[in-house]
Amino acid sequence: MLINSPGKINFFLIVLSFWIVSIFCSCEEYQEGCMDSNAINYDYQNELPCCCEYPRIQFQTTLKDNEGRKAFTDTFYLEDSTPFLVNEISFIASEVLVENQSGIRMGPTDSLIGYIISPDILPVRVSQVNSTGASFIQNDSFRNTSFQIRNIPGIASFVPEDFPIDHPFRDSVLYNFTEKRWNYLKIRLDFPGEQPLNFEFSGEEINLPVSMQGKWGKIKGKNLTINFLVNANHLMRGITLDLSNETKRSIIMDNMSGVFEPPE
After folding, report:
1. Cα–Cα distance measured from residue 155 to residue 153, given in angstroms and rounded to the nearest whole number
2. Does the structure show a pLDDT above 90 at 1?
3. Residues 249, 239: contact at Cβ < 8 Å?
4. In which element (H, E) is residue 227 found?
5. C-alpha to C-alpha distances, 87 to 71, 74, 112, 232, 241, nearest whole angstrom
6. Distance between CA atoms of 19 and 76, rounded to whole angstroms?
7. What tens digit of pLDDT does each residue of 56-107 get?
8. Which pTM was predicted?
9. Distance between CA atoms of residues 106 and 226, nearest Å
């Protein structure tokens, strides 16, 4: 049938427009996002599952002296009143476990993010305050946190570049590129008018079990944050600048067992 009059053409175009609009409007738009209530980015309004980010374990570290909490910009003092600043304290915690009120011990898992190495290993930089590790889903209250600082054969074959950009082991602070090994404990202290003290300990040099009693909790959709204190005065107890570096290293190693304290 031919449409040859202006009125009929206009009517035809109007009908065609409504038909096209009705086709496009019949395709509903759904909000895409995480629909798992265990995830930290869960939204009950999402209608298409996508892109869930799951809770993880993180160590939240705060410096202190014998009087109380301190900031990284604060000045500490040796027993002979020599002032110093803490530039860096970093370590690799392994066999990370928490114990709930019933005495059940549990650790992080890599089943949700692909952690590459064992999920119970966590590199910690005290200066960052929060050091985040592998996934931790269990919601509970915990009374004890324990970890080890000692040699881990499983990471010896890795270098920082082997890990994804957002992985905690991508940070090269704990890797010694000259000796091609990981530092399991790294300490740098600055003394005004003096040379800084730098100490790096390999896995063969340190074997330190750490256990702290405290109160920590995790709720659904949130990270498990284990906050604790790092006592810089205890770290440097018995040290004076006139001692040899080897003597300082030995004293620091002996002091490490009392450096970590539960939150006040």
Report:
1. 6
2. no
3. no
4. strand 224-231
5. 11, 11, 34, 11, 17
6. 77
7. 999 999 999 999 999 999 999 999 999 999 999 999 999 999 999 999 999 9
8. 0.84
9. 14
